[in-house]
Design goal:
Order of helices and strands of chain A: HHHEHHEHEHHEHEH
Structural class of chain B: alpha/beta
Helix content of chain B: 40-55%
Number of domains of chain A: 1
Shape of chain A: globular
Number of helices of chain A: 10
Low-confidence stretches of chain B: none
Bound molecules: thiamine diphosphate
CATH superfamily of chain A: Thiamin diphosphate (ThDP)-binding fold, Pyr/PP domains
Largest sheet of chain B: 7 strands, mixed
Largest sheet of chain A: 5 strands, parallel
Oligomer: heterodimer
CATH topology of the largest domain in chain B: Rossmann fold
Radius of gyration of chain B: 19 Å
Shape of chain B: globular
Strand order of the largest sheet of chain B: 3-2-4-5-7-6-12
Low-confidence stretches of chain A: 277-282, 284-288
CATH superfamily of the largest domain in chain B: Thiamin diphosphate (ThDP)-binding fold, Pyr/PP domains
CATH class of the largest domain in chain B: Alpha Beta
Number of strands of chain B: 14
Strand content of chain B: 15-25%
Strand content of chain A: 5-15%
Order of helices and strands of chain B: EHEHHEHEHHEHEHEEEEHEEHEHEHH
Distance between the termini of chain A: 27 Å
Number of domains of chain B: 2
Number of helices of chain B: 13
Strand order of the largest sheet of chain A: 1-2-3-5-4
Structural class of chain A: alpha/beta
Amino acid sequence: MSEVQDELIGGLQTKAQAIREDIIKMLAEARSGHPGGSLSSVEIVTALYFHVLRLKSEDPQWPDRDRFILSKGHAAPLLYAALAERGFIPREELLTLRKLGTRLQGHPPWGMVPGVEASTGSLGQGLSMGLGTALAGRLDRRNYRVYVLLGDGESQEGQVWEAAMAAAHYRAGNLTAVLDFNGLQIDGPITEVMSPLPFPDKWRSFGWAVREVDGHDFQDLIAAFDWAKTIHDMPSMIIARTVKGKGVSFMENAAGWHGKAPDMKQTAQALAEIGAGTDFKGDNKHAE
Amino acid sequence: MQSKSSMREAYGRVLVELGKSCPDLVVLDADLSGSTKTKDFGKNYPDRFFNMGIAEQNMMGTAAGFALAGKIPCASTFAVFATGRAYDQVRNAIAYPGLNVKIIATHAGLTVGEDGATHQTIEDISLMRTLPNMTVIVPADAVEAVQAVTAAVAFRGPVYIRLGRPAFPDLFGDDYQFQIGKAAILREGEDAVIFAAGIMVSKALEAAAQLSVEGLDVAVVDVSTIKPLDRETIVKLAEKTGAVVTAEEHSIYGGLGSAVAEVLGEQCPVPMVRVGVEDRFGESGSPEELLDAFGLTSEHLVKAVHGVRDRCKKR
Ligand SMILES: Cc1ncc(C[n+]2csc(CCOP(=O)(O)OP(=O)(O)O)c2C)c(N)n1
């Protein structure tokens, strides 16, 4: 690994730590919300916001920006934390999550929060919206890329596969989906509730280019995002193996932590386990 | 403080009971069995419980298939997904053939709370009410919920039952007898009538108590069956009082208020005010804060009664 690469990955790790800390604090303050699936996607979303996406936080509507759509909208705290760390919204606002009158709704609302690219929360709909946005970009001859984050339980929705079929049919090479493959949904392991496996074969047979990565390994993730950019004639799927609740020992691999906030004691323990973040700004400042 | 009970817990318990006496009962859920409380049925009757995963449309279609083969399927998930996500399946596969499917949905209305607008259905009653063959029931407390579920399972045909997320104040004793299509007069009165459903029934009773201090005698009716509507009771009380308020945790378009207005407009036009969610989506907040912010409180009902009576005087 080069020195530059080392520095980037170190920086991303620090950023991920800060975002995990934000998530725990937000949920503790809100006293409700979804820690498990927010924590499992931290590295994926950090890599996107601090390395992959071309964005201008001072111009959230910049027409050539890359788009990120959080299809698994219940991970809203993660999205808001990333947007705050990336300068789209004030960090102080994070603690208003889920409170009456806040912009930071329980599920991401389009048009209310700068940087939120689609309203999600009803599972299974993000990939379709990503596809429409990608096809519009092609029509307008803009070279932005569209990224959509899906849950593995969410993949049980039929609409996901309707979108998969359509994206391949229209050869949406500017569309990349990432699957947070943490193996759990609300009622238990995905294989026990309603198995959507095997993922790689399904996506390949639907006409997608597929790559499998460790969803907590930045090197792996960055290589996969670089790979996705080289594919122009079909949509690409990055299947990211993750751990639900990653980074907080008692939340890891525990379905019970899907949608429940930590109490004060649990919050203290979680924050101690995560450790403090610093001020890393990411390496994609070139877009600013 | 009035005692409260969870309708969802009550639903979970009665399902287990019914499972004993009704071998044809099958239960379907869509990855929310811990929240809808169908989980206990699954524990007791694992071979008659089907977790369909996060796939509500397929769940409704599968329920229709069970009904085609003579089973009595209860399909549960959050109300927003049961009615909205799977609307065409409910319409074309269940309501049109009039199949014996019970859609028993939880987490309806604003009192979903912090999850916000995406999860707060304020249009489900409207969606279900306009479907021919569909019976629509909105219980006001846990006792009524249990009786409604029992009655729905005994009834032949598609039924939609709307349950809430938080515990609701207890209203009915064990002597209460719910009947599909019958509104329950909880309080007689001469000066105005409040037709209410769901959590707003207890708010209406509170409002009537406040108004009685001012010397006003206000009737309160629990219109738990929104379809078929108890026209007779509604017209009778509208005639008697001449001043009508409706109250529901639902859009003022298409729900109880609309249903009552349709009947009274044709049979007994009197001044009327619909209390419900104005034409807007919900938002995040605690259930009580939201009821307050959206004007679904007893204070608001008191004002509505005054308003409607002022209009009566001007006539
Ligand atoms: C259409 C729809 N059905 C049900 C839900 C309720 N719900 C919220 S999160 C969730 C489980 C999601 O599991 P998964 O996609 O694996 O997410 P993760 O484990 O990554 O959090 C469910 C069923 C929903 N939000 N939308």
